């Protein structure tokens, strides 16, 4: 059974701000830590990301309709500076699935798979790095399903995080196991 087609495009911080604001302030997006954000806060945050040389945001589309947010960053300069020893080809990632009234079984796993495919489409990407909140058990399970291996807990200014890594080979093996 096919869930549909996923594509990504660069996020437009002003044009997409209202949509993003709905997503990041939804109760299901608590781990995004923007629950009380105003529209202007969301615009400001994504303008900051758009201007950043080492942090990029993308709007993910499902069959042409906005369905998820994807961020990629260089952990040597953003998010994880001084918290681990980066290796050449490391790429950091965040993703957020849009809230919906009509959940589709397997959708979130399909989204994280599409995100990983997008990241590994760049031959320079050797390993994806994530740092979700240690209490976000749902995302830990999703990460594991696509090949992430937890390394250790780390303290970030905003949270205690589970530092995890996924090599291209681990992703391919996990994807092959789920077919």
Instruction: Count all strands and give the number.
Output: 7
How far apart the termini lie comes to: 11 Å
* Main sheet record: 7 strands, mixed
% residues in beta strands: 25-35%
Compute the CA-based radius of gyration: 16 Å
Element order: H for helix, E for strand = EHHEEEHEHEEH
Shape: globular
Please, what is the average pLDDT? 92
Helix and strand content put the structural class at: alpha+beta
Low-confidence stretches: none
**What order do the strands of the largest sheet run in, or round the barrel if closed?**
1-2-3-4-5-7-6
User: Helicity, in percent?
Assistant: 25-40%
Individual helix count = 5
Can you characterise this structure?
- With 179 residues, this protein is α+β, with helices and mostly antiparallel strands.
- It has helices at residues 17-24, 39-51, 107-120, 137-145, 168-177; strands spanning 6-10, 55-62, 65-73, 90-97, 127-130, 149-156, 159-167.
- A 7-stranded mixed sheet has the order 1-2-3-4-5-7-6, with helices on both faces.
- α1 packs across α2 (39-51).
- The N and C termini lie close together (11 Å).
- The model has no long low-confidence stretch (mean pLDDT 92).
């Amino acid at each position: 059974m096919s869930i549909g087609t996923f594509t990504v495009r660069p996020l437009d911080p002003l044009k997409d701000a209202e949509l993003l604001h709905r997503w990041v302030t939804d109760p299901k997006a608590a781990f995004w830590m923007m629950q009380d954000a105003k529209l202007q806060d969301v615009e400001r945050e994504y303008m900051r990301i758009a201007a950043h040389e080492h942090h990029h945001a993308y709007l993910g589309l499902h069959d042409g309709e906005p369905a998820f947010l994807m961020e990629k960053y260089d952990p040597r300069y953003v998010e994880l500076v001084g918290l681990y020893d980066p290796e050449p080809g490391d790429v950091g990632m965040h993703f957020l699935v849009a809230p919906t009234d009509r959940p589709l079984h397997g959708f979130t796993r399909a989204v994280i798979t599409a995100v990983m495919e997008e990241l590994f489409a760049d031959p320079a990407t050797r390993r994806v790095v994530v740092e979700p909140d240690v209490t976000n058990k749902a995302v830990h399970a999703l990460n594991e399903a696509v090949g992430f291996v937890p390394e250790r807990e780390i303290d970030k200014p905003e949270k205690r995080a589970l530092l995890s890594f996924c090599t291209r080979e681990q992703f391919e093996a996990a994807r092959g196991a789920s077919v």
